[in-house]
């Protein structure tokens, strides 16, 4: 699909999951959830390496069967509950460097994001390179303006921002949130600031129908419904 870059796609998939045991490899619409991100990265044709960082042998086996590399296992330090995604990415980049391999760009893909597609990854990486950005993040617009949100105080509803209570929705600035699917980075800049990009991220906007956090069984049901809608609409580039 795209032109290969000196880039690595890193799928971060540790074995532990307390809310949905085995979530990263739980079957989702006929495949282990992890596989969707791997397939999207491979089908994009833009990554020199598509790898999975894990501490779990079963995840490693499924990842390899799907076509990803697992050149080394995650360390104990980055496998615990308190390790951050940045800790994992820094470890992966350092491990590759020890092997004599470096990359100009990378994408961090979450293992529980079946809505990631080759098209989205290609669009994000193209924006990263062409705009000489430090990072690119897919975001989704809030369906209701948070500027008109309310809180419960002393048992009563109160506007958090009373100055916006009577404003029309179309007169308020659109607000977006992280879609929780993937991130693209300029590797040198990322490592220099350990992930805390001083110049921030450039956005690509994805529809709400293709975004779903998966933290409990009801989230899974919603994700499956949205996925069917996306697939039926022909949104996945491999269909």
Structure description:
With 239 residues, this protein is an alpha/beta fold. Helix content is 30%, strand content 21%. The chain has 6 helices and 11 strands. Strands 1, 4, 5, 6, 9, 10 and 11 form a 7-stranded mixed β-sheet that branches. A hairpin with a 2-residue loop joins strand 7 (150-153) and strand 8. The two termini are 13 Å apart. 33% of the residues are buried.
Fraction of residues in β-strands = 15-25%
Number of separate strands: 11
Gyration radius (Cα, Å) is: 19 Å
N-C termini distance: 13 Å
* Helix content bin: 25-40%
Shape: globular
Residue stretches low in confidence (pLDDT < 50, at least 5 long) are 235-239
Task: List SSEs in N-to-C order.
Answer: EEEHEHHEHEEEEEHEH
Please report the number of helical segments.
6
Provide the residue-averaged pLDDT.
93
Structural class: alpha/beta
Largest sheet: 7 strands, mixed
Topology:
Elements: E1 5-12, E2 27-28, E3 31-32, H1 33-44, E4 47-53, H2 57-65, H3 85-98, E5 105-109, H4 118-130, E6 135-141, E7 150-153, E8 156-159, E9 176-178, E10 182-186, H5 187-193, E11 202-205, H6 217-232
Parallel strand pairs: 1-4, 1-5, 6-11
Antiparallel strand pairs: 2-3, 5-10, 6-9, 6-10, 7-8
Helix pairs in contact: 1-4
Keywords:
21% strand, 239 residues, alpha/beta, 7-stranded mixed sheet, globular
Gist?
The chain has 239 residues and is an alpha/beta fold. The chain has six helices and eleven strands.
